[in-house]
Amino acid sequence: MTIIDAHQHVRDPSRARYDWLTAELAPLNRPIGFDELCPALREAGVDATVLVESADNDDDTNLMLRTAETNTEIATIVAYVPLERPAVAAERLTELRRNPRVVGIRNLIHDIPDSDWLLRPRRRRTAAIPGRDSRAFLWHRCEGPGRGPRGIQEYDSCLSGYLRCPPE
């Protein structure tokens, strides 16, 4: 049986901006590479892992892509795409689809004060982009303060049409 850890982060504050790394999180405000995670994963019997974006910027996604190039234990990547900018999102998705390890996108919506951010028309149009081909793109959403059940339920309903098939 293969054991997969479905949510890991790597980060390097010298290579990407992590707005959520505040003074209260000083012990975490440092580079954390896959080489630091690997021993704990092996000890736990984990065979593979999924890297998930930890900052809403391309630099963080690029760090994950570079990390995956040299670590076969990284099975897949959930990357960042700027949902607030549909044209840029479409272009970035086209680029990310070239990498078979990229299986999904997410934004750190729990840091956005507007609880209806995901439901705005521009985000709904951008959310339709992954559904334009047959490759599955998984969406990740985080509930947080101010996220009412109505908004999350409507967003889940909006996205359910775009989840077509499991990753190959």
SSE ordering? EHEHEHEHEH
Main pleated-sheet profile: 5 strands, parallel
Q: List low-confidence stretches.
A: 132-168
Number of strands: 5
Main β-sheet, spatial strand arrangement: 1-2-3-4-5
Q: Which class of secondary structure composition applies to the elements?
A: alpha/beta
What Rg is obtained from the alpha carbons, in whole angstroms? 16 Å
Q: Approximately how much beta-strand content do the residues carry?
A: 5-15%
Overall geometric form: globular
DSSP helical segment count: 5
Straight-line N-to-C gap:
18 Å
Overall pLDDT level: 76
Helical content (DSSP H or I, runs of 4+): 25-40%
Molecular structure report:
With 168 residues, the protein is α/β, with parallel strands linked by helices. It has a domain at 1-80. The protein is built from 5 helices and 5 strands. It has a 5-stranded parallel sheet with strand order 1-2-3-4-5, with helices on one face. The longest helix has 12 residues, at 58-69. The protein is globular. The two termini are 18 Å apart.
